[in-house]
Amino acid sequence: MQYPFAGMLIHKLIRLGDEIEAQFALRLTPFGITLPMYRVLVILVRNPGPHTLNTISRSLEVDPSTLSRQITTMTRLDLVTRERTSENGRIVQIDITSRGREVAAQLIPFAEQFDAMSKRNLSDKQIQDLDKILQTVAQNFSDMPPAG
């Protein structure tokens, strides 16, 4: 028996996203980190210098309180540092450690492989068209009124 909504675009997108995330998470397991932690490492590696919790949360489009818990775990794993600034003790700066750089350097190639795999057998035009379609779908959802 087939799931009644198996042919719906939204169902296909969710299933594909879940599968990609699960496959990528398998690559992260040996490093003891989660996908959200990996994303933080990428932000810090690709944008050098200390950052605040707010700048990182805006870049990743995640709630600062959720990010704060991840940063706490990442600090314990020696992936990032978290220090209060001397000029304003309320501001906490977050930076990547040498261990965080090493982990990111080993994991970023997996992301590049996943990207290449997703584009395999697609022409440049198909990739551009798909990108436009996904942007339209995302816009459709941003126009959706809030639940409740």
How would you sum up this structure, described in words?
It is globular and about 60 Å long. Helices cover about 65% and strands about 10% of the residues. It has helices spanning about 10-30, 35-45, 55-60, 65-75, 100-120, 125-140; strands spanning about 50, 80-85, 90-95. The chain is built from 6 helices and 3 strands; from the N terminus they run H-H-E-H-H-E-E-H-H. About 15% of the residues are buried. Helix 1 (about 10-30) packs antiparallel against helix 5 (about 100-120) and helix 2 crosses helix 5. Strands 1-3-2 form a 3-stranded antiparallel β-sheet. It has about 150 residues and is mostly helical. A hairpin with a 7-residue loop joins strand 2 and strand 3 (about 90-95).
Distance between the termini: 33 Å
Q: Biggest β-sheet: count, sense, barrel?
A: 3 strands, antiparallel
CATH architecture: Orthogonal Bundle
Q: Describe the global form.
A: globular
Pattern of helices and strands: HHEHHEEHH
Radius of gyration: 19 Å
Physical arrangement of strands within the biggest beta sheet: 1-3-2
Q: How would you classify the helix and strand content by structural class?
A: mainly alpha
Uncertain residue ranges: none
Number of strands: 3
- The percentage helix is 55-70%
What is the CATH class designation? Mainly Alpha
Percentage beta strand = 5-15%
Number of domains: 1
| Total number of helices | 6
